[in-house]
Amino acid sequence: MTTIQMIITGFITLIALVAGAFGVGHSKGKAKAEQAADERETKTAIESQQAATKRQNEASKGAADVQENVSRMPGSAVDDELRSDWLNKS
Questions:
Q1: What's the pLDDT tens digit per position in 37-53?
Q2: How far is residue 69 from each of residues 43, 61, 62, measured CA to CA in Å?
Q3: Which residues does 81 contact at the CB level (< 8 Å), separation at least 6?
Q4: Rounded CA separation 22/50 (Å)
Q5: What whole-number distance in Å separates Cα of residue 63 and Cα of residue 52?
Q6: End-to-end distance of the chain based on CA atoms, in angstroms?
Q7: CA-CA distance, 70 to 78, in Å (whole number)?
């Protein structure tokens, strides 16, 4: 093997090593980025589920309060309340 062939072989080997290191680093970086994105998505999903649960609880409490108010009112008071709130006021 001549000196030029050895230099060319060494240069090609060096380029292959650099490309391999770049590929390994890129792969690890991509895996970390995907993991971080998954964590953000999971956190967002949990927060939105908690907000939906909170809204549902508030709506249920509001409905229970209205039901309790209506059940304590005499029948004519319920009719009067509905008439005053729900009739067209034109």
A1: 999 999 999 999 999 99
A2: 39, 12, 11
A3: 73
A4: 42
A5: 16
A6: 104
A7: 7
pLDDT of the residue at 54: 96
DSSP string, 31-58: HHHHHHHHHHHHHHHHHHHHHHHHHHHH
For residue 35 the two structure tokens come to 């993991």
Residue at 64: amino acid letter:
A
**Residue type, position 47, single letter:** E
Residue 60 near residue 68 (C-beta atoms within 8 A): no
Contact 73, 81 (CB under 8 A): yes
Token pair in block for residue 76: 């004519």
DSSP conformational letter for 73:
S
